[in-house]
Prior knowledge:
- Keywords: Bacterial flagellum, Cell projection, Cilium, Flagellum, Periplasm, Signal.
- InterPro entries: Flag_FlgI (IPR001782).
- It is found in: Bacterial flagellum basal body.
- The basal body constitutes a major portion of the flagellar organelle and consists of four rings (L,P,S, and M) mounted on a central rod.
- This is Flagellar P-ring protein.
- The chain is α+β, with helices and mostly antiparallel strands.
- The chain has 3 domains: about 5-20 and about 260-290 and about 320-370, no CATH class; about 30-40 and about 185-255, Alpha-Beta Complex (Aspartate Aminotransferase, domain 1); about 45-180, no CATH class.
- The protein has helices at about 5-15, 65-75, 200-215, 240-250, 335-345, 350-365; strands at about 20, 30, 35, 45-50, 90-100, 110-115, 130-135, 140-150, 155, 160-165, 170-180, 190-195, 220-225, 230, 250-255, 260-265, 270, 275-280, 280-285, 290-295, 295-300, 310, 315-320, 330, 365, 370.
- The strands form 9 sheets. It has a 6-stranded antiparallel barrel. Strands 1-17-16-26 form a 4-stranded mixed sheet.
- A hairpin with a 4-residue loop joins strand 9 and strand 10.
Amino acid sequence: MPRFRFRRLLAATALAAGLALPVAAPAQVRLKDIVTIEGVRGNQLVGYGLVIGLQGTGDQLRNNPFTQQSLTAMLERMGVNVADQRVQTRNTAAVIVTATLPPFARQGTPMDVTVSSLGDARSLNGGTLVATPLMGADGEAYAVAQGPVVVGGFAAAGQAQSVSSGVTTAGRVPSGGLVEREVPHAMRDLDNVRLALRAPDFTTALRIEEVVNAKFGPGSAQALDLGTVQLRVPPAFRDRLPFLMAQVENLTVRPETPARVVVDERTGTIVVGADVRVDPVAITHGNLVIRITETPQVSQPNPFSNGETTVVPRTNIEVDDQRGRRLAVLPRANTLQSLVNGLNALGLAPRDLIAVLNALKASGALHAELTFI
């Protein structure tokens, strides 16, 4: 059989058993895809505001006093005194506004914000967010958000039926936030730059050190631990650090991936890493299957009798404990292909295979990390 046909058949067999099978070796990836620069990060912002213009789907003011207080305070700032009035509008909703301030964002930089209902509003569809300051962890306002709210879900209801899809009490304001305060960060004053691995690993850190030293000379990079590589800024790049980082982040390296089996019990999905190994073991797995079938019958009385027509229940119960299943031998699996072939030979469904993987891990035959999500 041609090699490419064998790989297609193997991948199809793995997918049928719920296994995701990589058929190629780990490729070279750019450093920008596996590391982050220490100190170059976003900052989370949060604010409290009001969404107006709703079609009767806002908060009930009598049940949400904070919405009424916010509405009254906003109107008073605009010269409208409603302190002694009883406002009954349903077109306003109190919301929490969240956003992430991008690194090195300058004044006037737009950004997307997320709006989430705080009260009992039924929908934010068609609403407009009123100017809301967004504050950081230090209590300072770094941005202001305002604009129409875009809601992904919808809801429609009648007297006897209702239809809904998605979430209507949360939405986004595209480019609705404007940066008002900048976060100071001077990269030109740095003598060393630290690269933080997204997936910490000693082997990957040493490979990054070797690649950077091969590009910029010995001693340019040093792996401090499994998650950090320190880069010494050469004197020629002191005033051109962005140019240096552009060259560093485009260097390629082959990351080391741990032997891991990821299991999602809710969907029955199993993902097996390429470095997973299994020792020879004998496996038997059987399920107790109980089938209950209801076949009610109608009992009809004879003509001109005093009886009544009744429904007589009839229940049929079948029990199958699969006693005919024999003991299966799983041979040593030194490659991912042999492991998938051995597991598929057991003829188990994905959810039964999860139980077998648990037993293999407990017996010590499975040499991999078993992770449940």
